[in-house]
Specification:
This protein is α+β, with helices and mostly antiparallel strands and 652 residues long. The protein folds into 5 domains: 2-100; 108-267, C8orf32 fold (Roll), CATH 3.10.620; 271-373, Immunoglobulin-like (Sandwich), CATH 2.60.40; 375-407, no CATH class; 412-639, no CATH class. The protein is 33% helix and 30% strand. It contains 14 helices and 32 strands. The strands form 8 sheets. Strands 18, 19, 24, 25, 29, 30, 31 and 32 form an 8-stranded antiparallel beta sheet that branches. Strands 6-5-4-3-7 form a 5-stranded antiparallel beta sheet. Helix 7 links the parallel strand 1 (142-143) and strand 2. The longest helix is centred in the first third of the chain and has 35 residues, at 2-36. It is elongated and about 95 Å long.
Length: 652
């Protein structure tokens, strides 16, 4: 009797679970058939896919729970083992169905078979052939932007649903917003052999499909920006300015959605590298400002110019209160900075053609005190209650979210000094590693040169380190004449009693296209470092002229073959009056979590110069430059060089 009473609830529960499984299985079969027979409207297809997905989850869960009741009823160990095996099989089958979405895969393959001709189009590089496919899809596509109709991209919010599955569904449905169109056409082209990418347009809330034909990217946005013809990516800005001026005026940034790289300049837009400095200014007095670390930065396009969404950038400052972002020049923006109740807002205009733009935004502490001072005593308990209840409910979630977002940000580390030997010089590189799983966008490296004398650091360097720019003398019958200094030796710092090299940009071994500067020379000081990847900062070339001197050609933002930052001449070590010459390198990028820093030192010792990297001895300059041929330009530098006098160096 007792056994019957004990088993009855279990049997009832088991029967209920069996009934649930049967109902879910029947409903799943109906949904399976409905998906296979669905029309190409988003309402039917997307909703049926969602129901199918939920039914599979429910069916697997119900089977698992049912199998758990069996060993409880029979109380046999072998039954428990059998149920564990069966539960594992059910789980694997459920995951298989969820991973492959069999009905969607079947429909996608049928759709893909219609476009097999694109294989030859991609192989032969036929732009018109690919454009014909794009136009065909665009003519059949049912655009549902700004409507309540379900869209394939909305399914990305569901667990276990990936971008590949949604792309297939977008191909079948031929309906949704611009992102669904881009996902669908790029999925087909990619599976048939074409190189593709999707470009996110900041300021317009738009997604643009692009295809590479003949090593050139083409915009194939038949829905909106290029409805009549494909446009080469490098000419897209000019095309929009002529045919879509409202779109051209609203674009602030273009992002490759696959890699996260900023490709604004690649599309013909004049861009500017904007540096934002956020400071906390507690009073109106000068000198008491401090950098706002980890301050939140939001950049908006004014609402009268932006289309649909005006937020174009969201990030945080680094430890020095700085953040950099690449934006389209010739436009105006609203920059909003906040930290712990302090707020700073600035309206800026980036001039056309400006390659660099810097703005300092103060956040005044007095503003926050005024708001607090206006709060009445009676309101304080109520405010505290709200704060406490909100903190209890959300502090764990917020901390976890902040921690996850923070961990995603790039971590830069300068981990090695590398050398490359040429016939007449040795080139010094710094290897920079991105240790995060996120691309380090707009990475820049800055150089500061300091000189130490009597343990005091000086950034005012003596002008005697620089050779004259009229050092090439050629004898003639009428005397000697001066020739023009070669471009690769015509340094940028001014020749004066003292000069400075403080936070000047250095070039990269693999730079990013970022406009042009003096004499039309291209900038090479900005790059994107791949996730878990590396790039090299090019520091300087070292030359040796017999036993007379060493020449250091320190590079600038223009690279290695055009104007250097400075040409420094070092006398033999026994004639120097400084303790060491220090090259301080600082590397940062957009939304950086940790900047990279390195110290390269040249110390005179034992009639030679010893090279150190982060305090670790690397080699002497005589070892590095051993068996190098003399360079005529370096020899001319040493010829005009006089013994240096460092006694007047200003230290601070």
């Amino acid at each position: 009797m007792r056994l019957r009473r004990r088993l009855t609830p279990l049997l009832v529960a088991s029967l209920i679970m069996v009934a649930v499984v049967i109902i879910l299985a029947y409903h799943y079969l109906l949904c399976f058939e409905a998906v296979l027979k669905a029309s190409r409207s988003a309402k039917d297809l997307v909703n049926n896919f969602r129901l199918l997905y939920l039914d599979v989850l429910g069916l697997g869960t119900a089977f698992g729970l049912l199998l758990l009741f069996i060993p409880i009823i029979f109380k046999k160990q072998w039954v428990l083992y059998v149920c564990i095996i069966l539960s594992s099989i059910v789980l694997l089958l459920t995951l298989f169905i969820l991973s492959h979405k069999i009905p969607i895969e079947m429909m996608y393959q049928a759709e893909l078979a219609k476009y097999r001709y694109l294989v030859s189009c991609c192989r032969n590089g036929s732009v018109n052939c690919v454009w014909g496919f794009i136009k065909t899809v665009a003519d059949e596509f049912n655009a549902t932007y700004a409507t309540s109709a379900p869209k394939p991209q909305q399914l990305l919010k569901m667990p276990f649903v990936d971008i590949d599955e949604v792309s297939k569904l977008a191909t079948i449905a031929k309906t949704g917003a611009c992102a669904d169109f881009a996902l669908g056409v790029t999925k087909v082209l990619n599976d048939l052999g074409c190189a593709v990418r999707i470009v996110g347009v900041k300021g317009v809330d738009h997604a643009v499909p692009e295809v590479m034909i003949g090593n050139k990217w083409y915009v194939v946005d038949a829905l909106y920006t290029t409805p009549n013809q494909p446009v080469e990516a490098s000419q897209w800005a000019r095309y929009l300015a002529e045919y879509k001026p409202e779109c051209f005026n609203a674009i602030a940034k273009l992002i490759d959605m696959n890699t996260g790289m900023d490709i604004t300049a690649e599309h013909g837009f004049n861009t500017s590298l904007v540096t934002i400095e956020a400071i906390i200014d507690p009073t109106a007095k000068k000198g008491d400002e401090k950098p706002a670390k980890e301050a939140r930065i939001l950049i908006f396009i004014p609402s009268n110019r932006g289309l649909y969404r005006t937020l174009v950038y969201l990030g945080k400052t680094n430890e020095e209160g700085l953040a950099t972002v690449e934006l389209v020049a010739g436009h105006d923006y609203i920059v909003f900075v906040e930290q712990e109740g302090l707020v700073g807002v600035e309206y800026i205009y980036i001039p056309q053609g400006a390659k660099f733009f810097k703005i300092t935004i103060p956040m005044y502490a007095e503003r926050a005190r005024i708001v607090i001072g206006e709060t009445s005593t009676a309101q304080i308990p109520q405010i505290l209650v709200h704060l406490c209840s909100g903190a209890v409910g959300g502090i764990v979630v917020l901390l976890l979210k902040e921690f996850i977002e923070h961990r995603k940000k790039p971590v830069l580390e300068v981990n090695q000094l590398d050398f490359q030997r040429f016939e007449r010089s040795v080139r010094l590189y710094l290897i920079v590693e991105n240790k995060s799983k996120q691309v380090a966008r707009n990475a820049t490296a800055y150089l500061t040169i300091a000189l130490y004398k009597d343990d005091e650091r000086a950034v005012d360097l003596p002008g005697e380190l620089l050779p004259s720019k009229e050092w090439i003398q050629v004898p003639t019958s009428l005397g000697s004449i001066s020739l023009e200094v070669p471009k690769s030796w015509d340094y940028l710092v001014p020749k004066s009693n003292n000069f400075r090299i403080v936070k000047e940009p250095l070039p990269w071994a693999v730079p990013k296209q970022f406009g042009k500067g003096l004499d039309g020379d291209a900038y090479q000081h900005v790059t994107d470092i791949p996730a878990s990847g590396i790039n090299k900062v090019v520091l300087m070339d070292v030359y040796r002229v017999g036993n007379q001197c060493y020449v250091l050609r320190v590079f600038s933002e223009y690279g290695t073959e055009v104007k250097p930052r400075a040409v420094l001449v070092l006398p033999p070590a026994q004639h120097t009056r400084f303790k060491k010459l220090v090259f301080e390198i600082f590397v940062t990028c957009d939304e950086v979590r940790k900047e990279g820093r390195a110290i390269v030192e040249l110390t005179p010792r034992d009639q030679d110069y010893t090279l150190y990297f982060n305090g670790v001895e690397q080699a002497t300059l005589s070892e590095l430059t051993k068996e190098l041929k003399e360079d005529s330009n370096a020899k001319a530098c040493c010829k005009c060089f006089k013994q240096q006098n460092f006694s007047h160096v200003n230290t601070k």
